[in-house]
Design brief:
Layout (H helix, E strand, L loop, with lengths): L1 H17 L10 E7 L2 E8 L3 E6 L4 E7 L32 E6 L18 E4 L5 E4 L8 E9 L5 E10 L5 E12 L3 E5 L10 E2 L10 E3 L3 E4 L7 E5 L5 E6 L2 E6 L9 H4 L2 E5 L6 E7 L3 E3 L4 E12 L9
Antiparallel strand pairs: 1-2, 2-3, 3-4, 5-10, 6-7, 7-8, 8-9, 9-21, 10-19, 10-20, 11-14, 11-16, 12-15, 13-14, 15-18, 16-17, 17-21, 18-19
């Protein structure tokens, strides 16, 4: 009897010893690193994707499959440079990447608020493996932009929680507006207008007719970059989603579903901008509704970025 017990214990010991070690779950790696001449950038990565945040200019400047091409456009002429202090700035520094602006633009004209765009952001790596980005408070608008950036531990997916905070003494009305500049995509696609715009999209005022650069189907509007002149279009889409194709990859930005509320730009919640040569980029833009923000309050908009192979996305062939 004793021999049988010893044998059984021995067998169990051998089985347990031979079992493979338990694999750690996938995780997101966050590290400080230099990038394009800027120091103290933040790199988020997993086995599938990588993201780079540049605090010095308040931008997400890279979103790419691991070891693959950047889907965001970068202005190589400005690598490693810093914009002048906001109070002294007169011109806009077009660094590229992804940013938040308050909408509508007609309320601030041009150039963008220098405290919110191009100024250094305070960036903190948090215990939950997210990054918090915070702009200075603008003395012009009393607004501050705060973004929380999370890379999925396993997938080619990034989640952004965007806040437009009112630090002034009175209520203000704004919408959150996310603008992603894309590296010369083959096309950018948004849902067709549901009711407001007869051709299926809104052509912005003072924008030349894009002609064959824009085509429509029963449910989508597809835009290609015009190399000779800029144009901008928008849609009051039921779904806040934009796809952009570059090579074998499709970059999708998706925001919250459209609400029964007023939106900027004659009701648009998705927009596409095309820039001519020599700066070869297009913009995928998503907007939230106009919100009255009380003192100490915030307008919020959550967006999700996904990279997928182009064969997995329905492609129109007009």
């Amino acid at each position: 009897m004793g021999a049988r017990v010893v044998s059984l214990v021995t067998v169990l010991f051998i089985i347990i010893s031979a079992s493979p070690p338990r694999c750690e779950p996938h995780s997101t790696l966050l590290q400080r690193a230099a990038y394009r001449g800027w120091s103290s950038c933040i790199r988020l990565s997993n086995d599938a994707a990588e993201v780079v945040i540049v605090p010095a200019i308040g931008r997400i400047l890279r979103f790419a499959p691991a070891g693959g091409p950047n889907l965001l456009w970068e202005n190589s002429d400005l690598w490693g440079q810093h914009a002048p202090p906001a109070a002294e700035r007169r011109d806009w520094a077009n660094f590229g990447g992804d940013k938040i602006w308050p909408a509508p633009q007609e309320r601030w004209s041009w150039p963008p608020d220098p405290w919110l765009d191009g100024s250094p952001y305070a960036c903190t790596i948090r215990q939950d493996n997210s990054v918090r980005m915070a702009s200075p408070v603008s003395p012009r608008t009393q607004l501050r932009i705060v973004r929380t950036v999370r890379l999925d531990p396993r997938r080619l997916m990034l989640t952004l929680e965007n806040r437009l905070e009112n630090h002034g003494p009175t209520p203000v009305e704004w919408a959150v507006w996310e603008v992603a500049q894309l590296e010369d995509p083959e096309w950018v696609e948004m849902p067709r207008s549901v009711k407001r715009f007869a051709p299926g999209f809104r052509l912005f005022p003072d924008t030349p007719d894009p002609g064959k650069s824009v085509s429509t189907s029963s449910d989508a509007v597809k835009a290609r970059r015009n190399t000779t002149h800029a144009y901008k279009i928008g849609s009051d889409a039921a779904i806040t989603r934009v796809h952009a194709c570059k090579g074998t990859w499709v970059f999708t930005i998706e925001g919250p579903g459209r609400r029964e509320a007023p939106y900027p730009d004659a009701g648009c919640n998705v927009e596409i901008y095309s820039n001519p040569d020599p700066l070869a980029y297009m913009e995928a833009e998503v907007l939230g509704p106009l919100v009255t923000i009380p003192p100490g309050g915030a307008a919020t908009m959550k967006t999700t970025w996904v990279l997928s192979r182009s064969s997995s996305i329905r492609r129109n062939n007009p």
